[in-house]
Amino acid sequence: MLYSGTSLKAFQFGTAQLFAEKVVREAPTKLRSQLPITVKITKSSLSKGHAQRGLDFGRSCKNAEALQMSSLSQGTPSIPGTAEVAAKECSLCTSVIAQSIAGATREIAESVDAGADVIELRLDFLAMFNAERDLPKLLAACPVPAIVTYRPDWEGGKYTGPEEERLNVLRMAVALGAAFVDIELKAAEAFFSGPLPPSRQTQIFVSSHNYEVTPDSETLAALASSAWQ
């Protein structure tokens, strides 16, 4: 599964729809029916009423034969909330970027109250993060499906520690039954070469990020193909 992290919040500036349509237009046939779309929107934007613009963006992508949300529920039928997310034309996701567990728990509750369908847990923003102690608490605090992300600095995140420790935390999220785990395309081979539960429920997002420009069609197609391999 490809999860495109090229700032879908850019729909506020009119560029994300062009990006999404370009991805869909250039993607291999296999991707046209299987690529899901979730619009990321900040918690403050949710509270300011911008959520409808995000939904409108998602629906406009669907008109371009964009992305079928039903694929999100495959393999995760026992994870609460995934069926509801899959049934929607477009879901709203907000990222929790608090620096403490208490703050993250508050942000989760506020985001869900504001209308988020999916919560992205940005573990790399947490100070003094202890995976064995804190990750189960965060997942338990999410009443909606959670995306577990532990973004390294080389992909625009905050994590600067050893790579294998980061990958092990993401594998732990799989073992704990997180609905989704986000792994960067550049790290995917190393991630999958490590131990994973043989009958996992978690869906894995293979992501690629470019915060500067929308890549050309050939580059997008190559990224999409690589993510599926």
TrEMBL record:
<dbReference type="GO" id="GO:0004764">
    <property type="term" value="F:shikimate 3-dehydrogenase (NADP+) activity"/>
</dbReference>
<dbReference type="GO" id="GO:0003855">
    <property type="term" value="F:3-dehydroquinate dehydratase activity"/>
</dbReference>
<dbReference type="InterPro" id="IPR013785">
    <property type="entry name" value="Aldolase_TIM"/>
</dbReference>
<dbReference type="Pfam" id="PF01487">
    <property type="entry name" value="DHquinase_I"/>
</dbReference>
<dbReference type="GO" id="GO:0009423">
    <property type="term" value="P:chorismate biosynthetic process"/>
</dbReference>
<dbReference type="InterPro" id="IPR001381">
    <property type="entry name" value="DHquinase_I"/>
</dbReference>
<dbReference type="GO" id="GO:0019632">
    <property type="term" value="P:shikimate metabolic process"/>
</dbReference>
<protein>
    <submittedName>
        <fullName>Uncharacterized protein</fullName>
    </submittedName>
</protein>
<dbReference type="InterPro" id="IPR022893">
    <property type="entry name" value="Shikimate_DH_fam"/>
</dbReference>
